[in-house]
Every structure is written in C-alpha cells, then in structure tokens.
Amino acid sequence: VSNVNGVTFTIVVVLFLVVTGVGFAAARWRRGGTMMHLDEWGLGGRGFGTFVTWFLLGGDLYTAYTFIAVPALVFGSGSIGFYAVAYTIMVFPIVFIFLPRLWSVSRVHGYITPADFIRGRYGSRGLALAAAFTGILALMPYIALQLVGIQAVLTVMGVGASSSNSFVKDLPLFIAFLVLAVFTYVSGLRAPALIAFVKDTLIYLFVLVAVFYIPTRLGGWSHIFDTAQAHFASISPATKKPLGTFVPTSASLGSTQFDFASLALGSAVALFLYPHSITGTLAAKRRSVVKRNMIYLPMYSLLLALIALFGYMAVADPVTAANVKRTGNAQLAVPYLFQHMFPSWFTGIAFAGIIIGALVPAAIMSIAAANLFTRNVYTEFIQPDASPARQTRLSQWVSLVVKVGALLFAVELPHTFSINLQLLGGIWILQLAPMLIGGLFTRWFHRWALLAGWAAGMIFGTIAAYNVASPTASHWAGSSDIEFGHTIYIGISAVILNLVIAVALTFVLKAVRAPAGTDETLPHQYTADPEAAPAPAPAGVGAEPGG
Amino acid sequence: MTQASTRSRSAIAAHPVISAVIAILVAVSILLPLITPIYARTGPRLGDFPFFYWYLLIVMPVISLFLWIAAQLQKRITSEDVQ
Q: How many Cβ atoms sit within 10 Å of the Cβ of residue A233?
C-alpha cells in the first residue's frame, strides 16, 4: 500500500461513507405502513414519480458496464465498442412499444416480477419457473461485471493490489461489497433510489469536466481521433490483422457491421427483459411516468457516448496507454486516464463516482433476483402460504446469496473484456423475449412450445458462448460467433432458434388441441392506469399494499 | 370495463392516420441506429468529429423528439395522461 495517493484515497473513503449513511437512512424515506412487505422492500412502495424513476432507471442502466467495460472495449478494439451507444439509443423506442403494457398489467394484477406475469398470462408454473431461473442466472454475470469495475478502480488506486495474498488483495472489494449487502438488506429498493441522486451528481460532474478538459491536454479532439484511427489501422504482430476498426467495416474487409448491429439490437431488446430493469419500471407510480421516462432517458445515452470516447483518449495519451499495456488489463484504461489527467482530489471524486455507480445497480439487481426466487420459486413450489413478512425476510437473505454467486462469476470467467460478462447475461435473458414480449401482445403462442423454444435457446446459447476461444482463453472468451458466414451476437442467433421452435410447436400443439392453460389477464388491462380509473382489487397473492 | 376495452381497441381503427404516424415514428427511431451502413463512414466531419461519431450523438435528441411526438399523438387518440 506504499503507492496509494493519500488525497485520492481519503476522498473516495469519505464519499463512500456518505453514501453508506444515505443507504441506511433510506429505510425511513417515504416510508409506508410496514417494511416487511415485498411491495415496500422490493418496490419502494410502488410510488416513484417521473423524477425519482428517471434517476432510478438511470442508476440501473448506466453502471460499471458504462464506465469501465465499454471504454475498455473501445480502447482495445475501436469502433465495435460503440455498439453500446447504438444500443442505448435504440433501446428506448423498442421498449416504448411494450413496457407501458407490462406496467399496466402488472399494476392491475399486483405482479412484482416478470415471472409473475408469465404465470398469470399462460397459467403455467413451469414456464414461470423457467423465467425466474433465467432471470437469476442472467443477473449473476451482470453483477459480477460491477465487481470487476470496482476492482479496476481499486487496482489503479493501489489499494491492496501490491499484496501477493489474494485475500488481502481483494479485501477492499469485500468490504465495499459487504456494506452494499447490508444496506440493501435493511433498506431495500429505497437505498439505491436515494443513492442514485448522489451517484448521478458525481458522474455528471466528472464526465462533463473530463470531456471538456482532457482533450485540451491531448491536443484537441482531432488529435484524439487521428491517433485512434492510425492506431487501429496498424497491424498487430501477433495476429497479422489490424488492431481494430475506426468505423465498422463492410463485408469486403471482414464485416464488423453485422456484428455491431446484432450486438446493439440484442442488448437493446435484452435490457428491459432483465428483472432489475422491470423492478425499476414497476416501482413507477403511473403509466405516464414510464412513458415520459422513455422520452427523457436518452439523455443518459448522450453521456454514454461521451464516456465511450474516454477509450480513445486513453489511446491518445501515451502514459495511460503504456500503463494499460504494462498491466495487460484494458479495464484499467479509464481509471489510469483519470489518474494521469486529473489532480488527485478530482481523481478521488471520479473514482468514488465509478465505485458508487457500480454499487447502485448491483443492489437493484440483487433485489430483483431475490424477488424472483421468493415469489416464483419459494412461495410457488415450497411454501405457498408464506406471510408477506416471511417472504420479505427470505428475499433479504437471497439478495445476499445472489451476490456470492456473482463473486464466483467475477473470479472464474476470463477478464480480457469484462463486457462479455454483460453479453453472456444478455444471451440468457434474451430467451425470455418470445414469452414475455410476445405474451404482452398475443396469447397465440402455446405455453409448451414457448418452454421448448426457451430450452433450445438456452442450450444453444450456452454451448456457443462456451466454445468461443481467444488467444488468451480457451472458453467463454467472447459473445459473438459465425453463423451462415456472418459474425453475429450469439444472443440473437439463439433467440431466432427459440422463436422458430416456439412458432412451429405452437402450430403442432394447437392441431392436437393440447390444453392451453388459463389466462387471468384481460385485453383492457394492458392499457390500464389503475389510479386514473380504479380497477377492482385482484385476488392474487400480495396484490396492493394493505390488500 | 367493457368501455375501456372498446376504447383502446377502437383507437387505432378510429384514427388510422395518426396511428400510422406513431408506428412510423417509432420504427424510424429504431432503424436510424440499427442500420449500420448509414453511418459507418468517417466523413464528412463535423468539427473534429468523424461522421460515425457525430451521427450517433445527433441521432439521440432526434429520437427523444420523435418519441415525445409519438406520446403526444397517443395521448390525443386515447385521452391518456401523457404530458
């Protein structure tokens, strides 16, 4: 710990303590009747307006993925990393189509998780179990990505990294994680919602300062772009190919355009299938709050584009580029860039912003995974008459267990590009698209056909991702492979397989008149806004607060 | 209840033109960033930014605007509370 900068370290610790205090205080913020109800602990009382929802969803969507993983990919491979920018632009028109419908039907029936909806729509506990399993599984690598992001910052700070003992080396990470786990346990969704304000303030501050200040130190934007263009065109001695692309290339040069578009589309569709994004959405007070957020959230995408450009700044700054090369870890590009460019006190603010920016979504994700387990596995199959207090207690514990699972992903999978952790989760969660998005618009699909399609997509996607190799790792090294002569995101090819099987089997099952299951939802409930025109109280479990 | 159901279903039938405009606005918003060949090029530059990069920055507020218009139109035909 000899090379730790005292000023940077102190500021990070102070801001971390402030956030911890806010996290515990959040339990009292806008408090309803009792905390021991999933609507309270898991959905913040379902009473968030446009402003809070914007911060909550923003805190949810812009994570260590944004600050560490995307610039790392841009630093290492160039323009392909900007698929993340295209993705965060197209995600809002895509979810504009289906998310308000999910909000409405969930509010009418008191659904807390996406699997609740699947169960109600298709009358199938098996399909709901598949959805819950997928959600929990897909969240683990995504939470793991947050850990990798925190670790990148801590490494550059020099905290623990100099020790050869792996326990001491990871101790700061464990401490940060423990604090996160405890305030999530106590305050539920209110904690990340309130911390999101602090986090976004810090992030806007350092991103805007960085975007205006760093280019002046590096000879302006034109020098940054020119350096990057020359860098990625140069031939790698190891592979005899260019190091990367400055803009996605067309077919004649080995197309990256198709890969780019499929990564963007797959990630965009996947985002609001993740249980944690749905949790953030369902916490909104009104249907119009959801819609308004689809209009305002693209402002965050602007930020993401600027952050992705940090990857090029790291290429253009010789000191940062040399530091990253020495450690062989592209994840360190942004932390090294800030450390070299900023005075140490401002580096502290930026580092604290990144760490808190990883903790907030990790908290929301673990709450969402816990809700899935409690609602769709425990009360469905193990103890149907569990009281709301018992359900909440169980969710609190599961939120801890899920974080441990995430630690395993963080330790076991290769880190060449941590963005693959998020893309791996995306491959799995995309397999819910036919049953969830399809189910919001039509009851045509047969539940058994959807289950078969889901199973095929999951198996194909997992095997395909396992088989992706790179010069440094023999398995799990990427998220795209070649199908029919095109490089394509595995999530897209798997969900196409899933959909084809679901459609084909639906025809077969309808022909043999297999039982379709009961549908507890009604068409008008998909556009309802219960507070505007109160709907009759549903009979389902844990419906409305006080119901 | 039945009133609500007929209202939302007939909204599209009663306002085919507005419904089509909404559909086009949303579709274009998805296609602008999805069709990579539109913008996978370096020129013309805007300031110091190559085309690929400033296109992505400019398309964002445009889509925000399209979705806002779409929401306003939806509000008009369904009397839904969207600001």
A: 13
Q: Which residues contact A479 (CB under 8 A, 6 or more apart)?
A: A263, A420, A423, A424, A426, A427, A465, A468, A489, A490, A491
Strand pairing partners for A78? A245
Q: What is the mean pLDDT of chain A?
A: 82
Q: Which residue from A423, A494, A505, A435 is spatially nearest to A461, judged by alpha carbons? A: A494
- Pick the residue with more confidence: A188 or A506? A506
Identify which has the larger pLDDT, B72 or A166.
B72
Q: Identify the three-state secondary structure at position A481.
A: strand
Whole-structure pTM value: 0.86
Res. A542: pLDDT tops 60: no
> Which of A250, A302, A524 is opposite residue B8, by nearest beta carbon?
A524
Does the pLDDT value for residue B82 go beyond 60?
Answer: no
Helices (H), strands (E): how many in chain B?
3, 0
- Nearest-by-CA chain A residue for B7: A524
Residue in B40, B57, B68 nearest the CB of A305: B57
Tally of CA atoms within 13 A in the half-sphere of A395 that contains its CB:
37
Least confident of A273-287, A397-411, A491-505: A397-411
- How many pairs of residues across A and B have Cβ atoms under 8 Å apart? 128
Tally of CB atoms within 10 A around A456: 19
